[in-house]
Amino acid sequence: MIRVTRRVVTSFLRAPRVNGALRTLARVRGHRLVLVYHRVGAPVRPGSEIIPSVPADMFRLQLQTLGEVVDFVTLDELLQDEPLRPTVGDRRRPAVALTFDDDLPSHVEHALPVLQELGVPAAFFLSGRGLHGLGAYWFQDLEALLVAYGEQHLAAMLRVPEHSEGLMLACERDRDLRRRVRELATRIPAPEILQPEGIAALVAANMAIGFHTLDHDILPDLDDRMLEEAVSRGLQELATIAGANPKYFAYPHGKCDTRSAAAVERAGFKAAFTGMPHAVRRTDDRYRLGRWEPGPVAGQDLLSKTAVRLHRSASSP
After folding, report:
1. Domain ranges, residue 150
2. Is residue 279 located within the same domain as residue 244?
3. Mean pLDDT value of segment 195-221
4. What is the rounded average pLDDT of the residues 223-234?
């Protein structure tokens, strides 16, 4: 188990081997990056993971490390047009906003306590499936089936060719295959989904709530009618428990095109996020903003990768 105090983190940041990353971060003061997380907590069995996981202690360590060199801000602050608030010596550090996708119980069980402990704001992009009595997402079912049967056996059960592109991608592209996943999943214990009381706990903690669609379909694959329905169905119920209309949208699987971005804008959202691992610039299309998922890395790797993301933003036209 990782136990790290602020003093230990500060000592680490002073070590010579991290100086290069810190110098790069210093050159991109005022730049902005949105991080995305999914499950915070113990990962599932190796080879079965569909939902990206970061252990809770590593998540805490990431925030402690980054908190020494960046400013954690809300999405509202990060997307404002005027300069972000200055820090010590009137020098603006890179601004980082945290986001979480999918209605996972680990948001409340593991991520929220760390956020509250460290005083870090975050936005949670939810579907609100629990508000409608719906169960887990299809990809949660797929992950549970992989844990139960293994990839080779499950591929045979789903009648997916042995040398296909992989079960996750195959299911993403085939609605009938997703239906078969649902049917098979009735044979095993159902994965848990975030319930209304969990959503209420995030709201009570002053975390922002965004929308992630009820069914998590890839929007560019939908026809016009289904697309309009996807970006609005379930939104009112989520707005009711959140106490306000969600302002921000996250594309399922991080995928969008011109048509889906236009549908999100028509639905009244102020900005939307893709899965492209880009930093945020003032000139970016507000409906095709990037987010980066750091994954289970810490220390030098985390600082170096964060510096690279921000430096690319600084170097881009």
Report:
1. 138-192
2. yes
3. 96
4. 97
* 1, part of any domain: no
For 130-142, give one letter per residue: b (16+ CB within 10 A) or e.
bbeeeebbbbbbb
Distance in angstroms (rounded) separating the CA atoms of residues 277 and 94: 16
Q: Crossing angle for the helix pair 299-315 and 56-67, nearest 10 degrees? A: 50
Q: Does 16 reside within a domain?
A: yes
At 121, which CATH number? 3.20.20.370
Helices 196-204 and 235-242, interaxial angle, to 10°?
A: 50
Let me know whether 155 and 233 are in one domain: no
Tell me the torsion sign for CA atoms 206, 112, 127, 234: negative
Whether the Cβ atoms of residue 220 and residue 255 lie closer than 8 Å to each other? yes
**pTM (whole model) above 0.90:** no
Instruction: Report how far apart the first and last C-alpha atoms of the chain are (Å, whole number).
Output: 43
Pick from 10-14, 66-70, 310-314: least confident: 10-14
Whether residue 65 sits in one domain with residue 114: yes
Residues 174 and 296 in one domain: no
- Using alpha carbons only, what angle is made at residue 121 by residues 261 and 265, rounded to the nearest 5 degrees? 15
List pLDDT tens digits, range 149-203: 999 999 999 988 765 568 898 898 888 999 999 999 999 999 999 999 999 999 9
